[in-house]
Design goal:
Four Helix Bundle (Hemerythrin (Met), subunit A); single chain
Length: about 140
């Protein structure tokens, strides 16, 4: 496959634990997008394991800190996991096209989710921990 989803510093939100998990998410999704059909099920299983841990961690943060819009965010995580589970089943039955569609949809979904829902959570977590707003230093895209 030629489609890729590389890490970009524009995904940084200023809460280090979340930023690290997001980098892992992007790496897992990039590997899923780039793999051959023979490796698709294994890559999707690896992505599913990552996403389960990733979303569970964010859900714990939201619930443990009484994050006001938590339920909307938690519901979106659950919807993604339901789709991943359904598509993994389809891929194991040989439907590689469904796996490719999901990977592309996840690459389309992640930036908006991170910039809208996760950035609010990052802001909330930094404010609770440090009393201020996140500071984010991004490498310039112009230098690439």
């Amino acid at each position: 496959m030629s489609t890729r989803f590389p890490w970009d510093d524009s995904y940084l939100l200023g809460y280090a634990p979340m930023d690290e998990t997001h980098r892992e998410f992007v790496d897992a999704l990039d590997a899923l997008l780039a793999c051959e059909d023979a490796d698709l099920a294994a890559r999707l299983e690896a992505f599913e394991r990552h996403a389960e841990a990733h979303f569970a961690e964010e859900n714990r943060w939201m619930q443990g800190t009484d994050f006001p819009p938590a339920q909307c965010h938690i519901d979106e995580h659950a919807a993604v996991m339901k789709s991943v589970s359904w598509v993994l089943d389809a891929v194991t039955r040989g439907d590689m096209a469904e796996g490719r569609r999901l990977a592309t949809a996840l690459a389309d979904w992640f930036p908006g989710h991170a910039f809208h829902l996760d950035s609010a959570l990052a802001h909330w977590m930094v404010k609770r921990a440090y009393g201020g707003k996140p500071v984010v230093l991004r490498r310039s895209a112009a230098g690439r």
